[in-house]
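Subject: Protein record for review, amino acid sequence with backbone structure tokens
Why sent: The fold of this protein is of interest and is recorded here as tokens.
Enclosed: The protein record, placed directly beneath this head.
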Amino acid sequence: MARLIIFIFFILFSNNILAQNNKTNIGRFEISIGGGVLIPVGKFASTSTAGFEQTVFEKGSDQQYDIGFFSKENHGHAKRGGDINLEINFLAGRFWEHGLSFGQSSNAIRIESANKYFGSNQFPMEVNFHEKYEVQNLAYLIGYRFILAKSVEFRPFQKIGFSRLTFPFYILESINSPGTTLIHDRDRPKSNSLYLESGLLTSISLSKKFDLGFNLSYRFADFDYIMYKRVVPGGSTTLIVPDQVNLRAIMTGFRLAYKL
């Protein structure tokens, strides 16, 4: 909430400055494409198995069961991944920029710790498939341009918007009885979240039209989802298992911008 309040104040302050500067500064549009590495940190990177054993409810009743499942809340088990993005910005006056940002990232899952946990249970199992964390985002961007020289500038920026995560589907297979699996027994809807990204862009002018930039930023999003787990074949009890993916990551990479 504090981040959101600061961001709103930032927007109001920038609008006040722009109202004073628009008479003397002519804006330009800028289109950029970029890519880089998305490095998980904190909850997203954690490979702990704490919280795998939880009490959940049977679908359609109040019956409770203690089960172990691949819980993502607080422990995302995410590997280093990749990111691509597109921005359309308006360079308002001399210093401020406003824009729209579109991006997509992908992070594979570390299964070693989870398999060690599942393999030590009374009925040992292993993860034989896990969907990658595929995240798309659409955000409003506001930034301030510190022009150090004619060809070099720094831009601290803030993004706020909407993000979507592909359902983190996985399959657990019995080690002692191959073919017996624990699956998610429903549709796999995408999960939505508020998206925040704070960062710094270092930009170097290559010509009057083209800039080369280096991005460093921190991303934040929380995705809630629900699994319906049951064993097949056999028609076992279906259990309702709520979970969450906490995206916490650092993105670093390059971008190429073209000024219209």
Observations:
- Residues 2-21 form the longest helix (20 residues).
- The first strand starts at residue 28 and ends at 40.
